[in-house]
Amino acid sequence: MFPDIPSDGLPLSGLKVLDFTIFQQGTSATAILADYGATVIKVEGPGNPDAGRGLYTGFDPNPYFEAHNRGKRGILVDLKHPEGRETILRMAESCDVFVQNFRQGVMERLGLGYDDVRARNEAIIYASASGYGPKGPHRHWASFDILGQARGGTMSVQGPPHVPPVAGFGGLADQVGGMFLSYGVLLALIHRSRTGKGQMVDASLMGGQIALQSHNITATLFHGLVPPRREREEAEPLWNIYECSDGRYICLAFLQSDKWWPDFLKAIERPDLNDDPRFASHRERTANRVPLIAALGEIFKTRAQADWVELLAARARLPVGPVNSYDQIADDPQVIANDLLVDFPHEVHTGLKMVGPAIQLSDSPGRIERPAPEYGQHTEEVLLEFGFDWDDIARLKESGAIG
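The structure corresponding to this sequence follows.
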């Protein structure tokens, strides 16, 4: 029960998605579906836009809204208006997926909960991006990205011990939650293709953060091992970050340090460190991490980041990499070669780049077909595609059901 895919189409071509998401968690999930061909209809209310439009005020185009609503079309429907609600239910009859991230109970009060939508389309996938999951005493609680990081445990192990726990930047819980929700939608679609039945899907901010740390949390549950918050100088010397002469940083990832240690010393021309009994093995290097980190810190300050990367990664083939700033990402040859940044598809704002699809498919790679919709940009054309005629549209506008 997947829609037929045109010969030149993307994996999700023909899939119709009604998108009621706001901000980042839910919108990023539906953006992923759009990247791979789904027709995503973003529904906003007349006079009640997605609050994400209000971020980055004064910047045109809005990077936040464009990043999370790329590839979608937009319509205005008043969900509180009886005819607006009926408009959505009528559209849902021919859609595959219904996605929302309101606080639990909101859509039910609007008459657009799972049971309401399923009554019109038993095969629909009803996906919810939640804060804390669909069950439990706190399922109704308000949530945002930082709360998911807090309650999901990731924040508790981030940052040095002398400061409060540190949140990950850029909406870490939102993005992970969105990825899991898109994953859940695809699983439900596979299930539907085998059974003909739709179902509910939920991916939460909290659940995504817990899943992100599966082995760490499992180690705590099995053996009481809790990852300590450490100063950088207390971490593993060869699993660490060092400043270079140009103020940029390099990252070492010698997980099996005894394996890499001889080649590393040869590359940096410091064989004398191998003769120091404090650094003779992984055990000794860990016990004497403070002096070793200090010594390596002085060594890495003798060359620029690019020189170290060339020497250690390219020539010596060691697991080393640059700590890229955002501007460096744009010039990184691996980023360019893998199309991780793509042209912003806009008729006016030309020459801009944005983050593109992350998953590489050899025969049907994802792409960003269009910029994020202007507020209510496609209301009339979308309703016409869903079988409404011009008289219907005029009546709905006059009643205030659509914008």
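The radius of gyration is 25 Å.
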